[in-house]
Amino acid sequence: MKRIAIVGGGPSGLFLAILLKRKLPSVQVEVFEQNRQDATFGFGIILSQTGLRRIGLADRETADAIIAASYLTRNRVFAHRGKSIYIEGGADGYAIARLKLLDVLLDVCVKAGVPVTYEARIENPDQLDADLVVGADGVNSIVRRAYEGQFASSTWTLTNRLAWYGTTKHFPQPVLIFKTTEFGNFWTAAYPHAADMSTFVAECDADAWCRSGMNKMTDIERQAFTERIFADELEGHPLLNNKSNWMSLPVTRCAQWSVDHRVLVGDALHSPHPSIGSGTLIAMEDSIGLANAIVANPANAREACAEYQRVHSPHADKLVHAAEKSFAWYEDIGPKLASLDAVDLAFDFMTRTGRVDERRLWAEYPAFMESHKERWSAWASGQGSERVLVAT
Ligand SMILES: Cc1cc2nc3c(=O)[nH]c(=O)nc-3n(C[C@H](O)[C@H](O)[C@H](O)COP(=O)(O)OP(=O)(O)OC[C@H]3O[C@@H](n4cnc5c(N)ncnc54)[C@H](O)[C@@H]3O)c2cc1C
């Protein structure tokens, strides 16, 4: 391969470009991004320590640069029915504004010698003259849409609504707060991503969306309404908006990861869910998988694409499956909020993906488990007995 064109300058596209340039310096790698360099959507994301370790094994410089620019988060608060539980333990999280993460990746890209062209929207992947075209262009991927049938893709929309705000309120640690109001169920996952800023992902179920009248409001009215719903938590601080429109999240899956010399990575291939907190890592790990396959098959794009799916999909599918369990938990949240108190809801939440079992809860959250060990036994033998608790 002489020329590889990457559509999309998000985390997966930029990281793939870095890996390819390092391993195959003679190949011309280019990235095309539709937005301006200083523009993106959303606020902060959290990257797990385990995921960053895997990024570091693929490229130490990238992982070190992300870690240096991140804000370390520890422990969490879980609140339901007015009761707050402080949960100590779990892996540390590296929180970073999405724009800062993109800046860090761009910096490494530029140093590695990859040209990134901004304000360059690709309308048709076949306009690119390249031996391999990579769709790293997010959940609404035009590369996927151009060959929808051959990628065997399916896309559906979740029923809950969500908006990705920021706030000047600094939450000392990540919080997950559920509120049952006169209009129905609302919740927020909020976390600090800088010393003076937090990310505030606000969500509600389909019933609350209609009963509250949010379905008929403008986005400015929705922001003011959300500030009122979470007034106690925000303590007078405003919500900040960065294209923070309320939306139902689309979910996309593809049975085929490539069509001839066109291949997908990240959200374009399999969008996860914010509640799993791993979308960026899943996307960047796809880039590792694809880069390895290209390095193993530098002369044959189709063979590289086939190897990418064959070798990387067992790992990626595990994470994507966990995301599916997680969004299913949120999609069916009403009965849980109505029937479980804060402690049982916390148990149910922490084991929702099937990847965390009793052994892991004790290992990661010993103080929390010690305080609630009788409750855990009761929950695990009753409510939890039908659950499959398998550590992976
Ligand atoms: C509310 C919310 C919170 C989240 N929190 C977390 C978190 O805490 N941790 C985490 O790991 N993940 C989180 N995620 C998920 C994460 O944002 C995504 O999974 C991740 O950004 C996927 O990376 P990507 O590179 O595949 O796609 P994207 O980040 O979507 O990047 C795609 C890029 O392609 C560009 N593009 C699109 N079409 C074209 C075109 N035709 N031509 C040129 N360029 C194009 C876009 O402008 C964009 O820059 C969150 C997501 C949401 C919605």
Notes on the protein architecture:
There is one protein chain. With 392 residues, the protein is of the alpha/beta class. 42% of the residues lie in helices and 23% in strands. The protein contains 16 helices and 18 strands. The strands form four sheets. The protein has a seven-stranded mixed sheet. α10 (279-296) packs antiparallel against α11 (301-331). It is globular, with a radius of gyration of 21 Å. The site of flavin-adenine dinucleotide has 34 residues, from α1, β3 and α10.
Q: Helices, strands, pairings?
A:
Elements: E1 3-7, H1 11-23, E2 28-32, E3 44-48, H2 49-58, H3 60-69, E4 71-73, E5 76-80, E6 83-87, E7 93-97, H4 98-112, E8 116-117, E9 132-135, H5 142-146, H6 148-151, E10 153-157, E11 161-167, E12 175-181, E13 184-194, E14 197-204, H7 206-211, H8 219-229, H9 231-234, E15 239-240, E16 250-254, E17 258-259, E18 262-264, H10 279-296, H11 301-331, H12 333-339, H13 342-350, H14 358-364, H15 366-371, H16 373-381
Parallel strand pairs: 1-2, 1-9, 2-8, 5-12, 9-18
Antiparallel strand pairs: 3-7, 4-7, 5-6, 10-16, 11-14, 11-15, 12-13, 13-14, 17-18
Helix pairs in contact: 1-4, 1-10, 2-3, 2-10, 3-4, 10-11
Bound molecules: flavin-adenine dinucleotide.
